[in-house]
């Protein structure tokens, strides 16, 4: 993995980066650097501002969720308030995420799928629920945005934007000022088309998302269909110290209305490090964990 990390570092330094200094009419947010990235220490979606309709999925109120994480939360007051409920901070035991499968926004098949994963936990078939970043799977769109504790880095060129996560160096590509293909082969990250607005926002429109068994929009294990359509708005704070994204998810085969979620990151002034997820990531404590990805054949 180290040679790959070096290649990424060189790419981030050598690719010509479009800059806000190119002129007011072509101003763009400065998201990219080999020396800083964007990190969140909160592992779930945040509620969007008022007026966005249905927010992210929540836990079943019968089974309150108490997180086991303990981290500083420089993102905003809402994140800090949520982390006051973490087990380490209030002297209680952590719990697992039991999703509210009765949420009326879910189509019947989605509600049944969510409840099935709930039942695995409630009946003791699994001790730990599936979380993409813990088991080395891609998070999909928009689920990849909630990868916590390690930064995401941007590469901006005149024709593309790359989002590169430090964890396992997963890469998502956004084509700028293009149009969606007439036929898109479904994939984990789909086909993303982007453009800039207002000098501070990257807007990304994504279709062609594969409905893999483990492709969810959140950590409550909410599935989607291949008709999922996601629009994300990444907005840089005026002082450049934080980044936020509003993600609107529409899927007429899975949800009865759109869902809108928010994610915030703070800037971390450090270059990308090498992080390999799959090394020594087995089911060491016999918890019936979901298996990590395994290739059918070697790449070389």
Walkthrough of the structure:
This protein has helices at 2-14, 77-83, 87-90, 108-122, and strands at residues 37-39, 152-156, 160-165, 171-176, 191-197, 201-207, 229-236, 242-250, 259-268. By secondary structure, the protein is α+β, with helices and mostly antiparallel strands. The protein has a nine-stranded mixed β-sheet, with no helix packed on it. Strand 8 and strand 9 form a beta hairpin. The radius of gyration is 19 Å and the shape is globular. It starts with a helix and ends in a 32-residue tail after the last strand.
Number of strands: 9
SS class: alpha+beta
Helix content: 10-25%
The DSSP helix count reads 4
Beta fraction: 15-25%
Unreliable spans: 1-25, 78-84
- Written as H for each helix and E for each strand, in order along the chain, the element string is HEHHHEEEEEEEE
Task: Note the main sheet.
Answer: 9 strands, mixed
How do the strands line up in the largest sheet?
1-9-8-7-6-5-4-3-2
| Rg value | 19 Å
What general outline do the C-alpha atoms trace? globular
> Distance N terminus to C terminus?
15 Å
Residue-averaged pLDDT: 84
Give the secondary structure arrangement, pairings included:
Elements: H1 2-14, E1 37-39, H2 77-83, H3 87-90, H4 108-122, E2 152-156, E3 160-165, E4 171-176, E5 191-197, E6 201-207, E7 229-236, E8 242-250, E9 259-268
Parallel strand pairs: 4-5
Antiparallel strand pairs: 1-9, 2-3, 3-4, 5-6, 6-7, 7-8, 8-9
Write a short abstract of this structure.
With about 300 residues, the chain is of the alpha+beta class.
